[in-house]
Every structure is written in C-alpha cells, then in structure tokens.
Please model this.
Amino acid sequence: LADVGFIGGTGPEGKGLAVRFAHAGLSVIIGSRSAERGAEAATEVAGIGGGNVTGGMNLDAAAADMIVVTVPYSGLADTLADLEEAIGEKIVVSAVVPLNFGGGRIGVIDTADGSAAQEIQRLLPRSSVVGAFQNLAAGHLLDVAHLVEGDVIVCSDDKEALAKVIELAQRIEGIRGVNGGPLAVSRFVEGVTALLVNINRVNKVEAAIKVVGV
Amino acid sequence: LADVGFIGGTGPEGKGLAVRFAHAGLSVIIGSRSAERGAEAATEVAGIGGGNVTGGMNLDAAAADMIVVTVPYSGLADTLADLEEAIGEKIVVSAVVPLNFGGGRIGVIDTADGSAAQEIQRLLPRSSVVGAFQNLAAGHLLDVAHLVEGDVIVCSDDKEALAKVIELAQRIEGIRGVNGGPLAVSRFVEGVTALLVNINRVNKVEAAIKVVGV
Model:
C-alpha cells in the first residue's frame, strides 16, 4: 500500500508532486486512466528524483493511504464517480484548479460549488477533502535540483486532515504549510493560481507566493 | 492640488495608505461625504506620520492628480456617480474589496463586473483604473513604526497608469509593486484579501503576501 496515490497523476503537476514526495521518502503510486501511462509516468518520476514510485490505474492509486487529485478539471466528475467506493473515508487532497484560458484571458471557471475542492467534497461525500498544492509551479517541482519556494495554503473543514496535509506539504524541502481555514477558502487559493499564471505571463517568470506575518 | 486624493478615505484602509503616502512626502487629501469628517481624518493622519495632509469632501479629493478609491463596496456606485465629471481622465486606483461576512464565512460578493476594480472602470469610463493596495493590512499601515511587508500587485489595462501606480506603491518603504497584468486579474487580487482575512482569523495574525520568483 503506497503512502500517497495520485488520481490523474501523469500531468506535470501530478508528476512534479510525485517527484518531491518520493524524493522525501514517501512511497507513491501514480494513477491514470491507462495502466500503461501510469507505469510510464512512474518510471519518469523515479528517474528524476528516485524513491519508491509505482504506476497503475486510478483505482490502484485510490488504494493508497492518502489520495491527491491532479486530474484536469474537465475530467474531474467522471473520474471520481468511479472511485468513490474505493476512496471511502480517506483524506483526499485537491490540487485541482479550474483554469479558463478563453478569450486570451487567464481566469477561473465559475463552478457551481465555488471551487474544485468543494466539488470534490460533493463527489466524495464520505472523504475528508483538503485543498492544497494548487499554487506550486510544476516546472519547479519537476526540477529536483531546484529548491521549491513558496507556501502551500491548506484548507479543510476536517482539522485533523488539515494538520496531516500541512505535515505532508512540509515533507517537501523549502515548503511551509499554512492553515488557510475552511474548505470554502480554497476558492481564493485556486484564484491565486490564476493570479500567478497572469503574473508569470506579464513578467516572464515562474512565480510562487509566500504568506508573510504568519 | 494634492498628489493623491482619497475617495472615502476616512476608514482604516484609506487613513492607513494616507499615513504612508504623506510620510513618504506626497501631499494627500482625504475625501469624505462630510467635509468635517474628512478634516478630522486628515488631522489624525498627520498626527501619526506627519506630512502634508488636508481633508474635505470627496469632490475636493477628486481634484487631486491621482485618485485612490477606498469607499466601502456598498457605497461605491452612488459615490462615484457624483464624481465622474470631476475625475475625468485621471488615474483611479481601486483598493476596494467587496468582502462578504455572511453566514460566519469570509468571502467575496459575486459582482456583475467580476471585481470592484472592473466595476469602477465601468462607472468611470474615461478614467484609467488600476487595481492596487487591496492586500495591505490597515493596522500595519496605520502603525508608522511598523515596516509594512508585502507586495502590492498592480493590475490595469493602461500600461502607463500601471507603471505609475507601481512607482506610487514603491514610495512606501518596504513595499514592492508587482505587475499583475490586465485589470480583470484584480478579481483574484481581491480574492487574496478574502484569503488573508481567513488566514488571519485561523492563525490569529495580520498577514500579507509576497510573490517569490519575480
């Protein structure tokens, strides 16, 4: 049984976080709709940062102790509908951001639940959903020689799960977890990703944020 | 003629910014619906940080070189309707955040224009609206002995106005202005205020944000 399972872990954000968690000594399973692509991503991730990394189907990843969702927003509802039973009452971390690149502008899709994290909580009502890791640049995560800067703001209505995800975040060297309060606050954390993507575009950088005064 | 005029400047955010601008050597006029309350606020501001501070009606503040709007969101439309002619084509800085404290949660009101800054642009179509200063804690601004930490993210569709407001922000010691891109990005900067208010509440702090990697 892996420590952390990624649902939809074959994109840059999933692989980037997997690199860092595996590098920090956690065992990781990268899930995908295709077992073959899951295994390929695992080989790639282990090649970058080493550690105990396997790949498989999303259902295999759902068996891990803690689940991290890195599915693109467009596939979220379909993917999670099939996994609710396997995930059950576990801690589920939402790193999803419903970014919208329409009309040359970078924004966030207005979702019915207020945020992707709240939508995941609706889709997985028995689980303890925690919003986190939305604001870290995948490019930096994948480059293991690069010390990742930035705070991870962690939001949940389950205080015990929130504390565990702050600990998880702090397994990554250079990262601090900051208590952001209730799950509904994820809306603004997801908005920070849209803000950072805009800042990156106009300044030609790869930025992160830190909370000062905490 | 003052360098900076505050529309609705008698609240903590307006007074706090006025303290810092006056302390940095800019002349400031604090506008209010009541000339008497404007004058009282000016006396208070000058007493904290010194400098050239006067008070008056919002219409007096609208005569300044650059305008900063710090009206509570609920009074925004009514206040600006009367000032459009006086403001004309000037640079108008929106520090307004439509915070919502309903139901025990701290969020942002869903406004028709997407953000307070965009609403101000609709209300003052001839002006060059710039979103800035939404994320600085008034308590810190008012305490002139306290070095204000944090970045001011500056958004506008008018690049010249954006550059001028970055310069204005950097008149405050300790503050860096960061180009946030188009005015529509203000939506996410206003969201950061809601995020910070939540972080403040759960961690019992007065936080600010910094963008790292720029």
The longest helix of chain B spans residues 186-203.
